[in-house]
Write a structure and sequence with these properties.
The protein is built from 3 helices and no strands. The chain is mostly helical. The longest helix has 83 residues.
């Protein structure tokens, strides 16, 4: 059959079909499957977008809370640094006072 097709292909292309059967397209079933897939993808996309928006909101809230914590921590650092400087100044003054007192005491004892 292949050899005869190769030698005279026009006989096969010009020939009338030997069976009288109507064509039943299968595209309706395929179209149904594709429609179902589209609906599933759209639902999944919608759900994913909703979850992404929720996650973005949660991230923004967390970021704001952490920035507030950082600001509060920096404020405490500044306050403690000022307290340390004040304490160092008082300590230096107290050491100076003790030296003055020792000198005054030694002068009084003489």
């Amino acid at each position: 059959a292949v050899a005869s097709f190769v030698q005279a292909p026009q006989d096969y292309f010009d020939a009338k079909p030997t069976f009288k059967q109507s064509y039943a397209p299968q595209s309706g079933e395929i179209f149904g499957i594709l429609t179902q897939m589209l609906e599933t993808f759209e639902a999944n996309l919608s759900q994913s977008q909703k979850e992404e928006m929720e996650n973005q909101k949660a991230y923004e809230d967390l970021k704001a809370a952490k920035e507030d914590e950082i600001a509060a921590g920096q404020e405490q650092i500044d306050k403690k640094t000022a307290e340390l400087a004040d304490t160092d100044e008082k300590n230096a003054q107290a050491k100076e006072d003790i030296e003055d007192t020792k000198k005054s005491l030694s002068a009084d004892e003489e």
